[in-house]
């Protein structure tokens, strides 16, 4: 059985991966480690500073925390359209 991983983000929109959601973070998606990484890497926004760090699209540019939460909700809904074997958006 493939290892399960969770993609989560912080208020900044910075996405990370791990076995659980740490305090202060919000879960985005979970499933097979490689499948979760593959889906997130092609749908997330890449940092312009290092071209490696992943962000939830719209959060870094958000004018307010409320706008950031709207961007996160849209992203999770977008990810929900990709639900399938080995991948599930959280809350979608």
Number of strands: 6
Q: How would the global form be characterised? A: globular
- Output the strand order for the largest sheet: 2-1-3-6
Q: How far is the first residue's CA from the last residue's CA? A: 24 Å
Number of domains: 1
Low-confidence stretches: none
Element pattern in H and E: EEEHEEHE
Secondary-structure content class: alpha+beta
Rg from C-alpha positions?
12 Å
Largest sheet: 4 strands, antiparallel
**Count of helical regions:** 2
Strand content: 25-35%
Mean pLDDT equals 94
Can you describe what's shown?
With 92 residues, this protein is of the alpha+beta class. It has one domain. Helices cover 29% and strands 26% of the residues. The protein is built from two helices and six strands, in the order βββαββαβ. The strands form two sheets. It has a four-stranded antiparallel beta sheet with strand order 2-1-3-6. It has a two-stranded antiparallel ribbon with strand order 4-5. A hairpin with a 7-residue loop joins strand 4 (45-46) and strand 5 (54-55). It is globular. The model has no long low-confidence stretch (mean pLDDT 94).
Topology overview:
Layout lengths: L3 E6 L5 E4 L7 E7 H11 L1 E2 L7 E2 L9 H16 L6 E3 L3
Question: Tags for this entry?
Answer:
92 residues; two-stranded antiparallel ribbon; alpha+beta; 4-stranded antiparallel β-sheet
Structure described in brief:
The protein is of the alpha+beta class and 92 residues long. Helix content is 29%, strand content 26%.
